[in-house]
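Supplementary Note 2. Why include the ligand at all?

Several targets in our set were suspected to adopt different conformations when bound, so apo predictions alone were not considered sufficient. For every target with a known small-molecule partner we therefore ran a joint prediction. The input for manganese (II) ion is given below.
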Amino acid sequence: MQITYFGHSSFLLEAGGKRILLDPFISGNPLAEKVDVGQIRCDYIFLSHGHSDHVADVEAIAKHNPEAMIVGIWELHAYYSEKGLKTHPMNKGGWWEFDFGRVKMVQAVHSSSLPDGSYAGSPAGYVFDTPDGVLYFAGDTALTMDMQLIPLTCPPLDLAILPIGSNFTMDVHDAVLAGDFIKCDRIIGCHYDTFGFIKINHHDADAAFSSNGKELILMNVGGTLEF
Ligand code: NI
Ligand code: MN
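The joint prediction is reproduced in token form.
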């Protein structure tokens, strides 16, 4: 699986022969100013929830990727399909077989509404079970006991993307516990440093994970990793 980081909580996964974009918030992110939104090519756009720091570039990217399918909870599907965009609705606990692998929508503890005030259902995370690996994208969430259901109901995770910036989501220490809950020792951090409320100390974050036998990966914006 190839993973490219576009800053904040936005990633491009290349798995099962498809390009899967997560939570595109790029043009409004000063840390991602080198990323050209107009150059992003994707087959899917998966959304964790409706907040602007996760959906800001959805419509622009969908317009120049007319075949791309937006995947989100029912209410996000309704919002974007009303705008004439291609969507697939899901809800918590369900799996769906896509052409790159299957995906389960899982619990996230956060809030959700769209930038124009529209109701956006509730926030979610996803488990991607692909021929190139199994990945959990937590979205914006607090630490929650429900994470313990993931290893009970999904194949073993190769990798997880967890928020670590605190204030709006889990902090680093809760993310270490989340790693225990989901039985995954290899974590990519997200939702940190973008704005003042979520600035973190990278050295302390690394130490919190490594002292618990876990690896924290903080990707460079625009950087790509192969797993
Ligand atoms: Ni949020
Ligand atoms: Mn957020």
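Residues 172-182 form the longest helix (11 residues). Residues 49, 51, 110, 140, 168 surround nickel (II) ion (ligand 1) (CB under 6 Å). Comparable summaries for the other entries are listed in the accompanying table.
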